[in-house]
Write a structure and sequence with these properties.
Blueprint lengths: L2 E2 L14 E2 L5 E5 L7 E2 L23 E6 L7 E7 L5 E3 L5 E5 L8 E5 L4 E2 L22 H4 L13 E4 L3 E7 L11 E6 L4 E5 L1 E4 L2 E4 L2 E5 L8 E6 L5 E5 L17 E5 L16 H7 L5 H14 L4 H8 L4 H12 L5 H9 L4 H14 L3 H8 L5 H10 L6 H11 L7 H10 L4 H12 L7 H10 L5 H10 L3 H11 L6 H13 L3 H11 L8 H14 L3 H10 L5 H8 L7 H12 L3 H8 L4 H8 L2 H4 L2 H12 L5 H9 L5 H12 L8 H9 L4 H10 L14 H6 L4 H10 L7 E2 L2 E2 L15 H9 L11 E6 L4 E9 L3 E5 L5 E5 L3 E7 L14 H12 L6
Parallel strand pairs: 6-10
Antiparallel strand pairs: 1-4, 2-3, 3-5, 5-6, 7-8, 8-9, 9-11, 12-13, 13-14, 14-17, 15-16, 18-19, 19-20, 21-22, 23-24, 23-27, 24-25, 25-26
Helix pairs in contact: 2-3, 4-5, 5-7, 6-7, 7-9, 8-9, 9-11, 10-12, 11-13, 14-15, 14-16, 16-17, 16-18, 17-18, 18-19, 19-21, 20-21, 22-25, 23-26, 25-26, 27-29, 31-33
Length: 852
């Protein structure tokens, strides 16, 4: 037993595979269902950086990557804030590579070069907020927004691969396959049924890559590649999980699986003879493509100690840099000889070997000041990147001076190098920043490289510079980058002064709005300048969302007429009208809304009622209750009030209680019956079944077995129409159309086979995608909601409810928060659709995301 109590038991977001590295260490990871790492006795592990390995943002959260000795000791946390990093692969130089899965439906699957000690951006680093919680300066494209790539302190992605369910990964270091695959990452993606390589080339201090397909399941949608390895002869062996679907713990086939071998034509499978009994034989086996062969060779050579040096030196003199790197790691781990071989490698002409030498110096506990000083002017940015990372936990003045020398060589726009600098200054940011500023001079602060470092630095001294950059920014997009940096600056007088400067200086409407948000409810009477700045913002934004936000923030009740004008501008249920109405209802204006509903204009009344589910506060509930029960209102408006209770849990509970207490208004039983049976809330549907059974004859034909359904031919055009006019589009988006609530289905045809689509529709609770688990939230004031968590910070729980609305609950105001064992997608679609309509719907879904 090595590790226990990680969390995520029997969960595909739990702990994943172990790999043996060329340095003699073990590498492994876990996804975000795991919460901690404990030793064999159940004690929480404190890693070599001095941090407990917990997902609690101190500093780690979500998925993590680890390195340890073969017995599980000396644990290091090498990267964190992944969603479901399935497996980590290391190459001979010690570089780490892995994939990460996005929240389903966001086309954000990524491949990462794991820069050690890096934050990889799935959740907000400081608050834990979800990626879809609005923030200043975020990316327009959701796949990029998904990883907080606009945040200072997030390591960039190597590659975005779209939709998928990424699984096993290796670095192929054999020579049997064609040149394009040698030394490259090879990866399985079970969702789109593909095994790919990602040929990478250096770019600045990092990499850029492309994709090359190796195996594709276009002819067999059940091809689910789950792992790939290099065989001893250099061919690939691919494991095929073989299933109609993937994800959500659902399995359609429990019995079958396949192995594939990938090799050049006419190359039979022959395992070479490997001799691990002698040093010479082990040295030869160290060159094998197969990781097990290299592990056995490493163990023999490491145990041989100094007697292995002659054989290893022969490998060191090879013209294959990866083979040289494997020999180097063994030489460096010979007791008493490590420093000699590290110093030799530090002077090597190959930059990758110099990188490996820096990594080895860290593992051996060598004098890193001397190592970094010797390489601080290295011409290869990747070598200087490793030097910066080597300073990550160093608090000495010498380290700050070395960091400043490395920072002075930053090239504008090289995000890899910039984030390595950010990691390197983590232990003493202010000392590093001061040393750099003194070294480069004031003029350098206006260069692109200088602005990058200020943006990344997170020190009080940088804040006046950020204000100046924001003022001089040519547009809102450029300004947003600097505004976002303020979120990571330390609280205190310097931050407050900088925000007030932003607000008063009028750097732009976006900057003023941002400053007001962050300053909070300041006393406008305390400063004529502040009062004038807010008044200017009110006048400049009148009739817009920022105007409503400002009025609400400062409780400006003298702007009531301005809010009413927005609400009365149309009858559309727009977000802007709802925001303005919410403020008015928060101010106790429910009576005014009811007066307008009762005034006699039916379209106006229905337009106001349609806003209530977008608001969901006490005032909105008061309006809906009164409208449903008001016998003087026309039935048309009362029916509209019932429909406006949809997806507003407290309003639906109110309607259910009418049924339970037999207080349904006369003539409204049929409407309430169908309304409550169609609720997405399982408890509401249970109440309806008990107190308002569906009329006899409802339910339609009996469906044939799933196997027969899967054989039927459907009409995709009819299915598309069914999707649009049915309930599907009220929860799912396709190609930008529909409501963003459940997973985006734009790529579903590239993920699920036909059989699994039927299962997902007919039994939605059987396989619930991770992140879409149903939760019920009950507040102390009686408010409640059912949905799924989109953000969970220290202070706030944000729930996305049916209809796509996100509701924020202050944790201090909550009475309970429970996960429910049901899907938010209601079962029983077979009661609405005929068998053929269901087949047509699946035929349409199969077309989504399929490569032409």
């Amino acid at each position: 037993m090595m590790f226990t109590k990680t969390g995520g038991k029997q969960h595909d977001h739990g702990i994943h595979a172990f790999h043996f590295g060329a340095d003699g260490k073990l590498y492994f990871n876990f996804g975000n269902a795991a919460k901690q790492l404990c030793d064999k006795d159940g004690n929480i592990i404190t890693d070599k950086a001095g941090n407990e390995v917990r997902a609690n943002r101190q500093p780690y959260q979500e998925g993590m990557v680890f390195r340890c000795d073969l017995d599980g000791s000396n644990v290091e946390t090498l990267g964190w804030n992944f969603r479901n990093n399935w497996e980590v692969a290391s190459d001979s130089f010690g570089a780490l590579w892995q994939s990460d899965n996005d929240d389903d439906g966001n086309r954000g699957v990524r491949i990462n070069y794991v820069m050690e000690f890096g934050n990889f951006g799935y959740k907000d680093e400081l608050t834990g907020a979800g990626w879809n919680q609005q923030r200043v300066g975020w990316e327009e494209e959701i796949p990029l927004r998904h990883w907080h790539l606009n945040d200072p302190g997030v390591v960039p992605n190597l590659l975005q691969t779209g939709a998928g369910s990424p699984t096993g990964i290796i670095v192929y270091e054999g020579d049997l396959l064609p040149e394009v695959f040698r030394g490259q990452v090879i990866h399985c993606d079970a969702g789109p049924n593909v095994v790919r390589a990602y040929p990478a080339k250096k770019s600045g201090a990092g990499y850029e890559a492309e994709t090359v397909d190796i195996l594709k399941g276009d002819g067999d949608r059940w091809f689910r590649p789950s792992d790939v390895v290099a065989a001893p002869d250099g061919s690939l062996i691919v494991a095929d999980w073989y299933d109609p679907g993937v994800g959500g713990h659902g399995m359609g086939d429990l019995d079958r699986g396949r192995l594939f071998r990938v090799a050049p034509p006419a190359v039979p499978y022959r395992v070479p003879k490997l001799d691990f009994s002698t040093v010479e034989g082990a040295a030869q086996a160290l060159g094998n493509a197969n990781l097990e062969a290299r592990y056995l060779a490493w163990q023999k050579l490491h145990a041989a100690g100094e007697t292995a040096i002659p054989a290893l030196k022969k490998l060191w003199e090879s013209d294959n840099p990866r083979l040289r790197a494997r020999a180097f790691w063994l030489l460096a781990k010979i007791p008493g000889k490590g420093a000699d071989f590290v110093n030799l490698a530090l002077k090597d002409s190959d930059a990758d070997l110099r990188v490996a030498a820096v990594r080895a110096a860290r593992q051996l506990g060598m004098d890193l000041h001397a190592v970094v000083a010797g390489l601080a002017a290295d011409p290869a940015p990747e070598v200087r990147r490793e030097c910066a990372i080597a300073l990550a936990h160093d608090t000495t003045p010498e380290a700050a001076a070395l960091w400043a020398k490395l920072a002075a060589q930053h090239a504008a726009g090289d995000r890899w190098y910039l984030e390595a600098l950010g990691i390197g200054m983590r232990a003493q940011p202010e000392a590093c920043f001061k040393a750099w500023r003194a070294a480069v001079g004031e003029a350098a602060l206006q260069s692109g490289a200088g602005k990058d470092i200020v943006w990344r630095s997170r020190v009080p001294e940088a804040m006046p510079l950020l204000v100046a950059y924001a003022k001089a920014a040519p547009d809102a997009a450029a300004r947003g980058r600097y505004l976002r940096a303020f979120d990571f600056m330390p609280d205190g007088d310097a931050r407050r002064a900088a925000l007030i400067d932003l607000l008063v200086a009028g750097a732009g409407q976006d900057a003023s709005q941002y400053a007001m948000q962050k300053l909070g409810k300041i006393d406008l009477h305390s400063s004529p300048e502040l009062k004038a700045a807010v008044a200017k913002q009110i006048d400049a934004t009148r009739g817009t969302a920022p105007y409503v936000e400002t009025v609400a923030l400062f409780d400006l009740k003298d702007e009531t007429a301005g809010l009413e004008k927005i609400v009365e501008a149309s009858n559309e249920a727009s977000d802007l009208r709802a925001a303005a109405a919410k403020v008015l209802l928060d101010w106790g204006k429910a009576g005014d809304f009811l007066a307008k509903i009762r005034a006699g204009d039916a379209e106006r009344a229905k337009g106001l009622l349609a806003l209530m589910p977008k608001i969901q506060n006490g005032g909105a509930l008061e309006v809906l209750k009164a409208a449903v029960l008001d016998a003087k209102l026309p039935n048309e408006i009362r029916h509209a009030a019932i429909e406006s209770c949809r997806d507003f849990r407290n309003a639906e509970v109110f309607l259910a209680n009418l049924a339970i207490r037999q207080q349904i208004p006369e003539g409204f039983t049929p409407a309430l019956t169908h309304f409550l049976h169609a609720s997405r809330d399982g408890q509401i549907r249970e109440a309806a079944a008990k107190h308002l059974p569906l009329p006899e004859g409802a339910g339609g034909e009996k469906l044939p077995p799933l196997a027969e359904l899967a054989k039927r031919k459907g009409n995709a055009d009819s299915g598309k129409a069914m999707f649009a006019k049915g309930t599907c589009i009220t929860c799912h988006r396709v190609a930008g159309q529909g409501i963003e609530f459940g997973p985006d289905l734009s790529e579903i045809g590239g993920k699920l086979a036909r059989e699994d689509m039927f299962r997902a529709i007919l039994d939605p609770g059987a396989a619930i995608s991770h992140g879409f688990a149903t939760v019920e939230v009950n507040a102390k004031n009686g408010d409640s909601a059912v949905g799924y968590v989109v953000s969970d910070t220290d202070d706030t729980l944000s729930i996305k409810i049916p209809g796509g609305l996100v509701r924020d609950f202050k944790k201090a105001d909550l009475k309970s928060h429970n996960e429910l064992p049901i899907s938010l997608m209601p079962a029983g679609l077979e009661k609405i659709l005929t068998a053929q309509e269901l087949v047509d719907l699946v035929a349409y879904l199969e077309t989504l995301g399929r490569q032409k």
